[in-house]
Design goal:
single chain; alpha/beta; seven-stranded parallel beta sheet; two-stranded parallel sheet; 13 strands; globular; binds NADP nicotinamide-adenine-dinucleotide phosphate
Length: about 325
């Protein structure tokens, strides 16, 4: 297959580069920004000098530009890792968030429909939030977002479904990786340098190592290839919305305690606190644990336990990349 990856220089996009190295498929990596020197150096250290660090410039808000790459590279599938991901800033930037999180995925869906291609799109647990759920959320459960980010991501899901290309939408949660800025990196630094730290314990979810999500995407691409592409580019019977995070449940407080423990940052006194101690324009979901039964049963994705994956990522950051 010829596979186009958008947002290739973000957290998930970089993990897709790692997996692409051992793939028989041909990957075209695109983004609106070049890969940073730091990310390129990290990729080479973790995966070897021959890893593909190229980036073609592609702005997915531009339908004609997408069509041009799809035609030139004879793209069979797109993995959309691009998004407007700044949850707080989205509150003041509705139009831009809607453009990137809703209109852009619609463009990708249109481009794939025109060539009978397949779109793998990433959405979020923040499509949930308003309903006071306290058991893991299933894919068909009603979701009412609490903020602009979640709402625009929900619009993106709806736009893809309306276009009607072959698609899989994966809702994921609390992503972290070796690349870019994320909660793990922030807490590694804070627990190493601050004597005391307060972290909210009243928001519960599941951390997800972006490499695990990239693995799940890979399983879906292989399944698609087996079922649809080899059957004369026919329909894909597993179209739909799926949930994927790592296994288990924790609060941001528990997550921080585990990061500090694995990193041996033992001198920081970490205390639980309520969300209202950190005033924010956006109310985040109190409970957004995702039920992953469907992706396990239907596509056969294996889901690692969150602390096992956290250990691997921290080992990469603290040992292999040092
Ligand atoms: N991060 C999380 O905790 C989390 C949780 C749940 C779901 N998700 C979803 O998971 C997916 C991957 O997230 P991530 O954390 O890997 O994202 P990320 O690190 O923010 O990467 C997104 C990439 O997309 C690029 N981009 C921005 N505008 C673009 C455009 N017009 N055309 C093409 N690329 C563009 C960004 O460039 P710039 O850096 O220049 O903007 C960035 O390189 C997203 O769909 C996100 O909504 C993330």
């Amino acid at each position: 297959m010829n596979i186009l990856v958008t947002g290739a220089n973000g957290q998930l996009g970089n993990e897709m580069r790692i997996l692409a190295k051992d793939s028989a498929d041909n990957f075209v990596f695109t983004d609106v920004v070049d890969a940073s020197e730091e990310s390129i150096a990290m990729l080479k250290k973790l995966a070897g000098e021959d890893i593909n660090t190229d980036t073609e410039n592609l702005d997915i808000t531009k339908l004609e530009a997408i069509r041009e790459v799809v035609k030139r590279e004879q793209i069979d599938a797109i993995v959309n890792c691009a998004a407007y991901t700044n949850v707080d800033a989205a509150e003041n930037n509705y139009e831009l968030a809607e453009l990137l999180n809703a209109k852009a995925p619609e463009n990708l869906a249109v481009a794939m429909k025109e060539v009978k291609g397949f779109l793998v799109h990433i959405s979020t647990d923040y499509v949930f939030g308003k309903e006071p759920y306290n058991t893991p959320c299933k894919e068909d459960q009603k979701g009412t977002p609490t903020g602009v980010y979640g709402l625009t991501k929900l619009h993106g899901e709806q736009a893809i479904q309306k276009v009607g290309c072959k698609y899989v939408i994966i809702r994921t949660a609390w992503l972290y990786s070796e690349y870019g800025k994320n909660f793990v990196k922030t807490m590694l630094n804070l627990t190493a340098t601050k004597p005391q730290l307060k972290v909210v314990f009243d928001q519960v979810g599941t951390p997800t190592y972006a490499l695990d999500l990239a693995n799940a995407i890979n399983v879906i691409l292989e399944d698609y290839k087996k079922e649809s592409l080899t059957q004369n580019n026919g329909p894909y019977t597993k179209n739909g919305v799926y949930h994927f995070s790592d296994e288990g449940v924790c609060s941001w407080y528990d997550f921080t305690k585990m990061i500090a423990a694995f990193a041996n940052n033992n001198d920081c006194d970490i205390q639980p606190c309520h969300s209202d101690e950190f005033p924010s324009k956006v109310k985040r979901p109190a409970f957004s644990v995702l039920d992953k039964t469907k992706i396990k049963d239907v596509v056969g994705v294996k889901v690692p336990y969150w602390t096992d994956s956290l250990k691997i990522c921290l080992h990469n950051m603290l040992v292999k990349l040092n």
